[in-house]
Specification:
This protein is of the alpha/beta class and about 450 residues long. The chain contains 14 helices and 17 strands. It folds into three domains: about 35 residues, no CATH class; about 220 residues, Type I PLP-dependent aspartate aminotransferase-like (Major domain) (Aspartate Aminotransferase, domain 2); about 140 residues, Aspartate Aminotransferase, domain 1 (Alpha-Beta Complex), CATH 3.90.1150. It has a seven-stranded mixed sheet with strand order 1-9-8-5-4-2-3, sandwiched between helices. Strands 7-6-15 form a three-stranded antiparallel sheet, with no helix packed on it. The chain has a three-stranded antiparallel sheet with strand order 14-16-17. Bound molecules: pyridoxal-5'-phosphate. The site of pyridoxal-5'-phosphate has 14 residues, from α4.
Amino acid sequence: MEEKKKGKSDFRYDTGEAKVPWAAIGENVNTDDISEIIKFLIPGKDATDYDEQLLKVKGEIEKLREKGKYATKLSLGSKVKELEEEAKKFLNVRYACFVTNATAGFEIGLKFSGLKPGDEVIAPAITFLSTISYPLEIGAKVVLADIDPRTINIDPEDVARKITKRTKVIMPVYIGGYPPDMDSIMKLAKENDIMVVEDAAHAFGGSYKGKMSGTIGDFGSYSFHEVKNINALGEGGIVVTNTDFGEDFPKSRFGGFDIAHPIEKWLYDVVALKGKGDHYTAAGNHSSTEIQAVILLSQMKRLEKIIKIRRKNAEYLNKRFEGIEGIIPCPLDNDEIKGTYHLYLLQIEPEKLNGDIQDFEEKLTAKGVTQIPHFAPLYRFSYMKQLGYDTEAIKKTCPNAEEAFLHRFTHLPLYPITEEQLKYMADKVIEAVEEMRR
Ligand SMILES: Cc1ncc(COP(=O)(O)O)c(C=O)c1O
């Protein structure tokens, strides 16, 4: 019997008109669901007439529904594509891929960098745990570099000391959105044939010497988690590259599914990803949804304004802290460097004070300025020890990270806080330091 040719399809959806259409999509989103989303995003249970108002909104949605259909494409559709096009334009980069989070983007960048078990990856000691998740997961060796005590970003001189023949990747991190010394990192990478995967989780919208932050190395990945300057409904990431590996981003995002290659008796081939140096790895599933893309597209329109307010607030704090003994204010923009002001990096000089950052944070908290501990050096967590790393020995090679964490630095919020809160915070920081002055 002759084999029947299967029709063109994008696998999960859109199999065309038929008497009995393929129903893999399940039930559509409907008015009840939309109303639940509104209820979640704008809760108001205790408000009088909340339910009544919500019912009215629901009625209006029903009326809208008469004018159009519910969306039936909810994952990896036209909105994800539109977001990626916007991101490419905004970042001036060849390829951009919307994924579940920045961590998934690092994974993709590291796979294409050809990272294998036993290879070495250099990352800063002070960063979020997920910068090194994928290398640890596959049994690559993580080498932690010390930090520059002024910016808390990776110190290229320590990177240079720690490069070996097995170093495959360097992962500079933009702490708080402030660029690391990318020129020095790129120089080291070039001289030693090492790939660079930028952890630009905090840095969407910043720039370094005319290039957008996150687009300088081989790969860069941004986070749109709920605490970031803009977010994709709680979670989201964009991975970018100017290398040809970007052609394979869609495969790397979704299981290695290769829609360019239809195969006999099924739909398309499934391929492994080929990284630098002929190394193949299997792809994971890091697909993101249309609704997340819709939200991120909407928030991107406000990004410039958000960064501007954050910058203005940081400038205000710096002005207030000018000349105050014991405070080192946050590095600000200059002609070549534009941060995103995700965090205000405040350092104190314990040698001029009675006490260190722990005492300072305690005082500030008591005065009503909440402190969130941020970024303990990664060698301090159990996971590295449990995976066989000699964390005490690593600590000894990162004295600046240890000193910064234990004694010197904290973060202050920049947005969305009111002018009154900003002024109050500045007053209390100064007051706390003055109380601690020797
Ligand atoms: C420096 C840094 N890198 C990576 C990440 C991970 O981002 P995501 O949660 O989008 O994976 C974060 C998240 O807060 C971060 O702060």
